[in-house]
């Protein structure tokens, strides 16, 4: 019992966390290379070299930071990513933790991510990180509703808040076709949640790195790995909620899941490289006035579809 | 049991995140005070970062709370939706319509702008 219930889930999550973060780093470098960014050394070794380099670097300190919170925030973000990865189903039975309310749990991960990112920006006691955190809260509070409505939409036909049930309900037709508005809206949420690319308001270059502008060395390593792992967790959730998770012909379920997760990751990373960053004050209006009504529409669509 | 496993995963990943920071930094000397000044693009800090500032989007957060309460009702609603049928659809539709009036009102009041 101990082996099945504790050890295997932990090993699974650890494996996905490390391999996933590495895959994100490699994919992002490959995409950057395809767009003509100069590459130093091998793409496959570069993430590990950077990781090792960060481990040996000196950690920066500001004058009077909130030490506990400053060190805790990257670790907490990593923990949230791990929780997200734990509820992603790889097949009917291959789930780290098959919680009955896993959709609700994922919602709470999204909500707590806002708290952790603000904590990271606030605790450095420097202006640029604080502005990054301040901006992020506006974004985080705007996207969370869109995410929730879209996820409730996939829970309706499943009649359950469990991701394994949500996947099982897509046997006939995947949610990406059944609820066409769902996946695009959810991808926007994903970019917001990991503050990646166009929605990178927390750690953006115009703030010299934002919440991460004062960290270097090991804390930076944990923060970067946690961000990449969160992207993987998000793509796992998106693949199970909209792309039918492990369902698919010929190949075994977990392999299908890996392919779909990679596809979502690729789309997110491509969007991150292609789209310009959006202005935060426009972002709030856009989310509440355009995207939130669209997510209502998605819910109504999903509801009618589930009843028919 | 699932919750226990989740707690285990939470504690382990949190511990790993802290350990990766603590182990290499144990013996590192602190940077000197001039080095520890916040990075302001070369400017000198005139004030503490933790001074009072205006949260421009504060009214938006209040609107969010209304919707967050609605989400609480929505989770159980989603499970019984197909069973209850059109009635559930109408009820939630009315609820959402009332809340949407709130969005329109907030929009008119300029809540989504950072004036």
TrEMBL record, chain A:
InterPro entries: NADH_UbQ_OxRdtase_su1/FPO. GO terms for cellular component: plasma membrane. The chain crosses the membrane at residues 6-27, 72-91, 103-122, 134-156, 176-196, 228-247, 253-271, 283-304. The keyword Metal-binding does not apply. It is found in: Cell membrane; Membrane. GO terms for biological process: aerobic respiration. Its main location: membrane. It is a multi-pass membrane protein. Keywords: Membrane, NAD, Transmembrane, Transmembrane helix. Pfam families: NADHdh (PF00146). GO terms for molecular function: NADH dehydrogenase activity. Belongs to the complex I subunit 1 family. This is NADH-quinone oxidoreductase subunit H.
From TrEMBL, chain B:
One of its GO terms (cellular component) is NADH dehydrogenase complex. It holds the Pfam family Oxidored_q4. The keyword Transmembrane helix applies. InterPro entries: NADH_UbQ/plastoQ_OxRdtase_su3, NDAH_ubi_oxred_su3_sf. It is an enzyme of class 7 (translocase). It catalyses: a quinone + NADH + 5 H(+)(in) = a quinol + NAD(+) + 4 H(+)(out). It comes from the Bacteria. Its EC number is 7.1.1.-. It is found in: Cell membrane; Membrane. Keywords: Membrane, NAD, Quinone, Transmembrane, Transmembrane helix, Transport. It is a multi-pass membrane protein. The keyword Disulfide bond does not apply. Its main location: membrane. NDH-1 shuttles electrons from NADH, via FMN and iron-sulfur (Fe-S) centers, to quinones in the respiratory chain. Belongs to the complex I subunit 3 family. This is NADH-quinone oxidoreductase subunit. It comes from Modicisalibacter xianhensis.
């Amino acid at each position: 019992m101990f082996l099945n219930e504790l050890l295997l889930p932990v090993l699974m999550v650890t494996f996905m966390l490390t391999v996933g973060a590495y895959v994100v780093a490699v994919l992002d470098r490959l995409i950057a290379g395809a767009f003509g960014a100069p590459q130093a050394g091998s793409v496959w070794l570069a993430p590990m070299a950077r990781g090792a380099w960060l481990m040996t670097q000196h950690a920066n300190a500001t004058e009077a930071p909130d030490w506990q919170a400053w060190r805790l925030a990257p670790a907490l973000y990593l923990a949230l990513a791990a929780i997200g990865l734990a509820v992603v189903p790889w097949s009917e039975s291959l789930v780290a933790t098959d919680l009955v309310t896993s959709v609700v749990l994922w919602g709470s991960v999204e909500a707590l991510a806002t708290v952790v990112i603000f904590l990271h920006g606030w605790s450095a006691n420097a202006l640029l990180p604080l502005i990054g955190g301040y901006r992020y809260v506006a974004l985080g509070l705007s996207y969370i509703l869109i995410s929730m409505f879209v996820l409730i939409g996939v829970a309706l036909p499943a009649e359950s808040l469990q991701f394994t049930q949500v996947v099982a309900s897509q046997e006939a037709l995947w949610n990406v076709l059944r609820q066409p508005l769902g996946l695009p809206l959810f991808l926007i949420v994903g970019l917001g949640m990991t503050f990646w690319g166009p929605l990178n308001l927390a750690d953006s270059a115009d703030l010299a790195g934002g919440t991460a502008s004062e960290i270097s060395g090991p804390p930076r390593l944990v923060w970067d790995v946690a961000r990449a792992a969160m992207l993987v967790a998000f793509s796992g959730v998106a693949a199970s909620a909209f792309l039918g998770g492990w369902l698919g012909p010929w190949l075994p379920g977990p392999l299908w899941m890996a392919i779909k997760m990679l596809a979502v990751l690729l789309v997110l990373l491509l969007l991150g490289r292609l789209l310009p960053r959006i202005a935060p004050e426009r972002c709030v209006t856009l989310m509440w006035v355009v995207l939130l009504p669209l997510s209502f529409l998605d819910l109504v669509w999903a509801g009618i579809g589930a009843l028919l | 049991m699932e919750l226990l496993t989740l707690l285990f995963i939470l504690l382990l990943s949190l511990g790993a995140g802290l350990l990766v920071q603590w182990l290499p930094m144990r013996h590192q000397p602190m940077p000197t005070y001039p080095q520890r000044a916040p990075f302001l693009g070369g400017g000198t800090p005139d004030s503490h970062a933790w001074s009072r500032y205006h949260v421009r989007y504060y009214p938006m957060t209040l609107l969010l709370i209304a919707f967050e309460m609605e989400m609480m009702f929505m989770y159980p609603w989603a499970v019984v939706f197909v069973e209850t049928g059109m009635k559930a659809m109408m009820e939630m539709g009315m609820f959402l319509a009332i809340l949407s009036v709130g969005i329109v009102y907030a929009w008119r009041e300029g809540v989504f702008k950072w004036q």
